[in-house]
Structure formats: C-alpha cells, structure tokens
Amino acid sequence: MRVGVHINRFDHSGGGPALGAELAAAGAAAEDAGVSWLSVMDHYFQMEFNGGAEAPMLEAYTTLGYLAARTSTIQLGALVTGVTYRHPGLLAKIVTSLDVLSGGRATLGIGAAWYDREHEGLGVPFPPLAERFERLEEVLRICRQMWDPQSNGPFEGEHHRLAETLCVPAPVSSPHPEIMIGGGGERKTLRLVARYGDACNLFATSPEEVRHKLDVLRRHCEAESRDPEEIRKTVAYTGEPADEGDLDAFTRDIAGYTKLGIDTVILAPRIGEPAEWIERFVAPAVQRLAELD
C-alpha cells in the first residue's frame, strides 16, 4: 500500500507570505519520503469544519502548478474539483496544462460539489444535486472527448454545448490524465467510476464499509463490462493517529484495509505547516505500509 498526502489547510503561522516556501518544503519532503500522491483541496472558501470560510484558502490549480514546478516525481491532483467550479472545456485545458508542464503527473480529481456557501458567496450557480450529477457525467464525457486527438468535434449535452473540443497541446499522460472520481454514493457516484473512472477515492470509515463500497463498485463494473482491477482504489484517512503522529496506532488502524486492494491511503492532517509532519510521521509511515501484507 502506498501513501499520499492531502494538504487541506493554509493557516501558516507566518501568514500568506510564508505559504510558498512551506508548500515547496512539503513537496520536497513528500518526494524524499517516497510519497506517491500530493493533493490540495479545490474550494473557494475553507470548509466550516476545518476553520471556516474566513480561514485562508488558495486556488487549487494555481497551487498545483506551483507544486509541479517544485517537484519532479509525485502525482498531483485536486481532491476533488467540484463539477460546478469551472466550465468543462476550461477544466480540461487546465488539467492538460498541468499534465504537460509536470511531465505527465496530473490527475483530474472530480466530484459533484456540495459546499453551497462558497457558491453563493462568489456568485457561482449551484444547481440541485440531481442536476449536478447530470453535469458531472457530461463533464467526464467532455474531458474524455477533448483528450482524444481524433475527436475534435462538437459536444451536445443537456447542460453543456461545445462547438469544438480542440485541446492542443495534448496531454503527456497516455491515453489521458488519470480521472479520479471522489465519493462513495452507491447509485450514482460509483456507477460513474465504473463507466469513466481510472481511480476512485473513498473515505476510510471502516474496513467493512470500504469493502461494501468496493463490492458495489464491482457490480457496477459488471454492468458496464469493465474489469474492476483497472480502477485504482484510494482511501482518504483522517484518523487521529496521523494527526498525533502515533505511528503504531496508525499502522493498527490501517491494517484492516490491506486485504481490500487499496492502492493508496491518503493522509489529510488538519495542519497548516505540513512539511515537518511529513518528515517526522509520513516518511516512516511509508515504510510501515510498504511492509504490510
């Protein structure tokens, strides 16, 4: 099992002027530790349970571009982009640009969006949930079409219409940047994973719950004539042992997931200065998880 790091707070003690150096140090520490994945949140406002809307928040893809320039091996992505945040043609170009400039290290992490306050606050339309899922499927289709060099034609959907799906330069990743769909909704989200996803991201609620979600995903894959082994399985871990730096407790907590085919456990501590934590806790955690059977 591999380890990822999710940076989700930007409340550095040195304020905004210290964030660039801290992110660069975090990227370097993550690569030195053998971390395989580095992500940031895609929100306009900080989430209420993580400091609230008045807490610092950086724009995700600007931040990922900066991290791309300060790293060389680690996979980069948003965990996850809300489908409502950017026009789909622009989103495909943004992720393509990240992929090209990082040498093929971009993932499109995407979901149906949920944070109504940030939409209302910045005047971004926030349609009902059913429509957001309709838009999510259209965006997935648009990105796949834009990343197919043989498909520079129009796209006609119920919510989105593109006269052209031109995307030049093409992504470096082959056949396209990884598509990671976040969420565990059994009727819609996991069906979209089976139909369009290269990876999924579930919450590490319990091994039993994750096993159930993966069983649901397998059934959707059967309906789509898709091999579920083609889909990379990841879990987001927010347990206290990681925040507290208790490596033994963390190893015991995560051991139950090792038989489920999970490729990557993504650690998401609620700290604004992650570089030191990566060096102190994540580096030995990478070694521990590599040794788990």
Using only CA atoms, what is the Rg?
19 Å
Low-confidence blocks of residues: none
Largest sheet: 8 strands, parallel, barrel
Mean pLDDT: 96
Helices, by number, come to 10
Adjacency order of strands in the biggest sheet: 1-2-3-5-8-9-10-11
Shape: globular
In sequence order, what are the helices and strands, one letter per element?
EHEHEEHEHHEEEHEHEHHEH
Number of strands: 11
Q: Give the termini separation.
A: 9 Å
Structural class: alpha/beta
Residue fraction in strands: 15-25%
Percentage of residues in helical conformation: 40-55%
Structural features, described:
There is one protein chain. With 293 residues, this protein is an alpha/beta fold. Helices cover 41% and strands 16% of the residues. An 8-stranded parallel beta barrel has the order 1-2-3-5-8-9-10-11, surrounded by 5 helices. A two-stranded antiparallel ribbon has the order 6-7. It is globular and about 55 Å long.
Task: Quickly describe the structure.
The chain is an alpha/beta fold. It is built from ten helices and eleven strands. Helix 6 packs across helix 7.
Could you name the key traits of this structure?
single chain; 293 residues; alpha/beta; eight-stranded parallel β-barrel; two-stranded antiparallel ribbon; 10 helices; 11 strands; globular
